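quick q for whoever's on today - can somebody do inverse folding on this one?? i tried earlier but teh output was garbage lol. tokens:
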């Protein structure tokens, strides 16, 4: 198996190099572009922020992409609405990069991963298509990952209420991540559950108060009318099944089974995040950044072949779908589903590795040094 993993990692690296030589990098071109329309999500968020600041409808702005995020996200983004679109993009892209890579480094430090492995992994993340795509398009995933990381760290330190608040805020910003609330529920961490519910409700109320109740109703209407995308960049199981000609409900059933299996096998937050993305109707391949910290649980056990396989797969850029699989045949549709395979690979590894790879004690408040506290309860996140 180890040989196969190294072969898979080498193959992914060679495909990446081939694309760079043959086509260049679409992600790099988008990152440095001064055309704000290339930063589609940022353009949508900025238009909504401007509309909020001027009393307009944040969901009817004429943006190329529909704003599927709840009102509270626009409230948080509103300060950037005071800037010109391109300036807002550069600020937000810098913040996103810091949040994603900073979250990874925090988890690596917490798990005491060796410096060499840590920095090689972070470098691979920085060069990956999900990371560069997240920065280039201006997506919200950096903020979401920061919230998940803070929740994970708070749980390890025994600050269960804080963990719940962070988790609740993440779900409030991206409701499709709601299955993550099942983790403290099955662990019977009631303080976390209660705090998460408070976090969701508080953030929702803030959005309703600042943007107006009618805006929340409008958001629900927009979300309800949004269909399931079978675009190859959508890595979820419902999208995969629909892309291959099957019923979407089967994909949702498989996704629900993945979530259920994960909860039975492990209490690893990153594994459940991967399962949740498989269940979600929309899981663009850039969403994979939400699972990045999970690779440090693999590196902590010195499973380098497995980690290399996970980290090289996302190096394959969007050129895969742009240049190789543009047809409508079954073979093309399978080829278009590469990113679903990548997400499934991360889920399988993070779920199978489970608790052995993340022996994180829930520590007493103030015990931050990493030593096991005699009165601490074990609870893996």
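ok took a stab at it. sequence:
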């Amino acid at each position: 198996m180890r040989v196969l993993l190294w072969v898979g990692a080498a193959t992914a690296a060679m495909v990446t190099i081939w694309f760079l030589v043959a086509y260049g990098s679409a992600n790099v071109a988008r990152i440095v572009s001064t055309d704000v329309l290339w930063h589609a999500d940022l353009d949508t968020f900025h238009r909504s922020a401007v509309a909020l600041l001027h009393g307009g409808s944040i969901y009817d702005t004429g943006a190329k992409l529909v704003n599927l995020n709840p009102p509270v996200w626009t409230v948080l983004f509103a300060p950037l609405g005071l800037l010109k679109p391109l300036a807002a993009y550069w600020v937000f892209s810098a913040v996103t990069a810091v949040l994603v890579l900073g979250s990874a480094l925090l988890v690596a430090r917490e798990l005491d991963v060796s410096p060499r492995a840590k920095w090689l992994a972070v470098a691979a993340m920085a060069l990956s298509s999900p990371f560069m795509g997240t920065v280039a398009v201006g997506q919200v995933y950096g903020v979401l990952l920061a919230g998940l990381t803070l929740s994970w760290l708070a749980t390890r330190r025994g600050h269960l209420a804080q963990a719940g608040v962070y988790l609740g805020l993440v779900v409030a910003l991206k409701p499709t991540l709601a299955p993550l609330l099942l983790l403290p529920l099955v662990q019977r961490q009631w303080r976390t559950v209660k705090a998460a519910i408070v976090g969701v409700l508080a953030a929702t109320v803030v959005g309703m108060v600042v943007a107006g109740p009618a805006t929340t109703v409008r958001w629900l209407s927009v979300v309800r009318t949004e269909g399931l995308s079978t675009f190859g960049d959508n890595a979820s199981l419902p999208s995969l099944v629909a892309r291959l000609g099957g019923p979407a409900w089967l994909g949702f059933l498989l996704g629900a089974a993945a979530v259920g299996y994960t909860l039975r096998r492990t209490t690893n937050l990153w594994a459940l995040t991967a399962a949740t993305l498989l269940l979600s109707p929309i899981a663009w391949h850039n969403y994979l950044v939400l699972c990045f910290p999970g690779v440090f649980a693999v590196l902590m056990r010195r499973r380098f072949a497995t980690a290399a396989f996970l980290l090289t797969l996302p190096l394959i850029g969007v050129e895969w779908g742009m240049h190789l699989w543009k047809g409508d045949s079954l073979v093309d549709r399978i080829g278009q589903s590469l990113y679903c395979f990548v997400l499934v690979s991360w889920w399988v590894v993070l779920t199978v590795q489970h608790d052995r790879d993340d022996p994180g004690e829930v520590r007493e408040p103030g015990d931050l040094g990493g030593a096991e506290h005699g009165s601490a309860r074990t609870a893996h996140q």
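fwiw Confidence is low (pLDDT under 50) at residues 355-381. also The two ends are 27 Å apart (CA to CA). so keep that in mind when u check it
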